[in-house]
Amino acid sequence: MLWLCISSPAQDKHALKGLASWAGQFSSCISFDIERSLLWLEIGSSLRYFSGLPVLLEKVVAGLNALGLTATTAVAPTPEAAALLARQSYAPPILKLEHLYQAIAPLPLDALALLPAVSSGLQASGVTTVAELLALPRDALARRWGMQLTDYLQRLLGERADPRKTYRVPQTYQRRFEFAEPVQTIEGLLFPLRRILYELQGYLRGRDAALQNLSVAFRHHDHSDTVLMLRTTDPQRNALRLFALLREKLERTQLPGAVMEIRLAVERFMALRDTQLQLWDEGQRDDAGWSQLLDKLRARLGEQAVRRLGLRDDHRPEKAWCVENEAATSDLPPAFPDRPLWLLAPRPIHQLPKLLGTPERIEAGWWTGEDSSRDYYIARTSEGSRWWLYREAATARWFLQGIWA
Question: What is the value of pTM for the model shown?
């Protein structure tokens, strides 16, 4: 098992939790130590996905730079060894436990995470390096300095298990950034806002999710909060794009006073739109450009300034369309309703499975003397199959007409 340790100057608990949420894109096993400002990632199970250790480390360092953090990284077979090596100016990755002693033996004694009294006492006894400490009998160390010292050495060398409390990524995302001094200008808000959005991007990648609605609140001392609501056309998780849209809104917002704190919240997530392109298909790329234009127009002009043509549930041509706010959602069925490929001759059914969604009314055949009115439903059986069935309006009988494989 490999562990990655990030040593960061972020002493604040909320900042370290935000960094842990960001790191979820690299590992599902994360723990941290607030007092020592350390973040551990178990990366052994992620190496194949990221095509090896060098690529993974490069992505981690690039992400930390984007967050504006000064950090050191180290890789070792045990958490405490990674923490020890991360405090050094440079430490090559240690991939095997048998190579660990050679890497840490020359280090000075004060590099270890020992209690001050234990460290000073050992140095007064003439012990100055890790190698000299490890050469002493463990029983004698335990009698003189307590079991805590020998327990630490065993966990450092991998001789004893070192379980850590795993950080659980929250189901909703909330992040706040409190300023040491009130910020008077918009320019002073941009850097922390961009950093928060980069953390959010890592959180979304770790959950393999995206968002379409984002709330950012700016807290003032003597005024109510200034709240910016952002809505994107397509599910989004790109930090730079979200930052550009929020900057457009922020530059057109009159803040009533200095900002004391930024709070960002996301409560609803969705799947990221599939953007894989076919070899000659440029359709999705064009759609992406169109959605970016709509998002920029909404951010610059306001939600009410962007409107679109919509549909109404009416077959009369002059009543079948309307002009509505672009942010509005339509309750009409999609333009191409879901249809099963496996169609059957209608079969009567007497016990209904679980119905999903709303019905779709189909009325036709009156011009041939075979008038029929049916309400079609999608249903799911107890075995997990999806059925396409309808209720005949004239007789109220149910029929199965299609199955999805």
Answer: 0.68
